[in-house]
Amino acid sequence: MRIKNILIIALIMIWAGGAVFAQKKARNNKGTALTDRQFWLQQMDKMVRPVLYNLAEDSLRISMPKVTSVHIDNRDHRIKVQYVEVLGRVLSGIAPWLQLEGGSVEEVALRKQYREWAIKGLKNALDSNARDFMDFDIGGQQLVDASYIALALVRAPWLWENLDKKNQELMMQSIVTTRRFKPVFSNWLLFSAMNEAFLARFGYNWDPMRVDYALQQMEQWYTGDGMYTDGTSFAFDYYNSYVIHPYLAMLANIIGTKTNSYKDMFEKVKKRNERYAIIQERLINADGTYPATGRSIIYRGAAFHHLADMAWRKALPKQLSPAQVRCALTAVIRKTLESPSTYKNGWLTIGLYGDQPNLGDFYNNQGSPYIASNIFLPLGLPASDPFWANPAEKWSAQKIWSGENFENDHSASLK
């Protein structure tokens, strides 16, 4: 017991001083710039470590701050749901990396640690006797966050396969529980559909009607040039990236193996994915900034969830090279995480460039900004992939604003 306590104290001291991976790199390569992949791993580790370490130790409820937006609608309720929220958002972003095998000695060791924490954390979340047990039936927000857990599990089947049968059953039941919540008539329809896709992927009974309703309605909401309305009206925000395109792409991958009914629709989805990826890459300014418009802007790098997802799935259109996308996303990561007030006591603050409370929305709690981890999806590609291995390239904004001759851009209907 004494040895175990010493180890726990040592881990806490390491965490408080910064990410293990980052510290090792600083010592071993003093004066040597990190590669892009090393930098991404460093930033991912810094962001995610407090969540999964504490959940694995059954201490998330003790350690996680109870912070909410200054515009919050129901503070007590939003705090109650923040634990499922942070779990789903963190796992959905690092799932492809957890699924990957191989890499440097340091990366393999880091992944091994995170895999252990993820499995232990999931078991604690499903154990009704654990402090960190998570209810999935507190309110409608948990339909959203259960879907991010579902998304993580289909992105990383390793997680599912390494849960024992008892916990697989508990997870399935937890996700099914959220069927009782009526989705908002918006991108929320996709959350219901993703939960059903998870069930379909792992051999459970699933409801084709919930999937069909979401797909057919999104088709009605397609407005042109690769973009969908979020509900009945269009908003110039990042929900096409936060949710709509990544979810439609995964639904196409899973449901497309179950039925041919959506073959034509999924072909259009693919082309729209590509067009919106082009738009997303052009939104990234030469310094890594981007238009701070629309709600949920505190999700930071998740504004480029779609572009990162396309890179991870090796689905980028021919107009975008993997290396230019890597460099553009690296710039976004640097810019959105560089402010000294990005973290407070190791936890993400509510803001886009540091701690900016007024940017929060009525539904934001401490778990909300962790959807930013979805910018790290390309870590699921091996270091040998062109995304990481090819030399650095300028992205569109850098080329244009440095005076290079550059191809013009044209809209596409794709209806």
**Major beta sheet summary:** 2 strands, antiparallel
- N-to-C series of helices and strands: HHHHHHHHHHHHEEHHHHEEHH
Rounded average pLDDT:
93
- Topology, number of strands: 4
What is the CATH T-level topology? Glycosyltransferase
Shape designation: globular
Protein name: DUF2264 domain-containing protein
Domain DUF2264: 36-395
Organism: Pedobacter suwonensis
What does this structure look like?
The strands form two sheets. A two-stranded antiparallel ribbon has the order 1-2. Strands 3-4 form a two-stranded antiparallel ribbon. The protein has 415 residues and is an all-alpha fold. The chain has a single domain, classed as Glycosyltransferase (Alpha/alpha barrel). 46% of the residues are buried. It contains 18 helices and four strands. 55% of the residues lie in helices and 2% in strands. A hairpin with a 2-residue loop joins strand 1 (222-224) and strand 2.
Observed structural traits:
globular, two-stranded antiparallel ribbon, Glycosyltransferase, mainly alpha, 415 residues, 2% strand
Secondary structure: elements and pairs:
Blueprint lengths: L1 H16 L2 H9 L7 H21 L3 H4 L11 H6 L1 H18 L5 H22 L14 H15 L1 H5 L3 H13 L10 H14 L6 H14 E3 L2 E2 L10 H17 L7 H21 L21 H8 L9 H16 L5 E2 L2 E2 L37 H4 L6 H6 L14
Antiparallel strand pairs: 1-2, 3-4
